[in-house]
Specification:
- The protein is mainly alpha-helical.
- 65% of the residues lie in helices and 4% in strands.
- It is built from eleven helices and four strands.
- It has a four-stranded mixed beta sheet with strand order 1-3-4-2.
- A hairpin with a 4-residue loop joins strand 3 and strand 4.
- Helix 1 packs across helix 2 and helix 8 packs antiparallel against helix 9.
- The model has no long low-confidence stretch (mean pLDDT 82).
Amino acid sequence: MAKHRAIPLGYMTVGEVAKKIGVTVRTLQYYDKEGLLSPSAESEGGRRLYTEKDLVMLHQIISLKSLGFSLDDIKHRFISLETPAHVATALTEQADSIREKIERLTASLTAIEHLKGEVLQMQAVNFKKYADIIVNLQMNNDSYYLIKRFDDDTLDHIRNQFDKESGLDFMDRFNRLSDEIIELQKAGVSPESVKCQRVVKEYWGLITEFTDGDMRMLPKLMEVGNIDAATNAWEERQKIINGYLEPALQIYFSRLGENPFEGVEG
């Protein structure tokens, strides 16, 4: 680094550069410390001096930083790039990275909007339920809004009974079976038919799996599943399923010679 007694023509102090480019002196000092942009000269008084060439480099750093490149990327990648093709490759990689960030942020924004709607429908602040809703939103579970209808004991049971993988598997099986029940209802298949009773048996198996055999949970599940007036597509669909399953379950339990709902207290 050249040294000068005074500030010669064509050289600028760190303060002048900062003012000219619109950055802080501290930023320039940090770039110097990190070896990203060091001044070309120094006065005998110890003042750091920059040239027009340094300004060009500073412009490049600021421009690339505005495109989302980290200072580490700029320092270790762009300084060594020698051809337009190399630069284009670096820009393509950065574009891909930005798209991924946009997708994540878009998903986060959607989750925030959904969570806000659920929060406003709840009677009290419950961060435990908020966390459950967020987790289910991240799992793309369309039934996430049911969480606000579960009490704390039921939610604790769900957390203990299922992890993320088994929870997704359970919801997938439940939704596929629900689709099959809807098709049977549309086709007018009678509740006592072999086909319907097979589906009812599978459905009851899912209920038993969900409760882990604790029949004391049945009244709570019935309360959650009891829908007087549907307010969304899922509830409208569930009303159809409930209406079709009720007589089918009565037939199923009658043939079993037992009724799991008898003697169960809420």
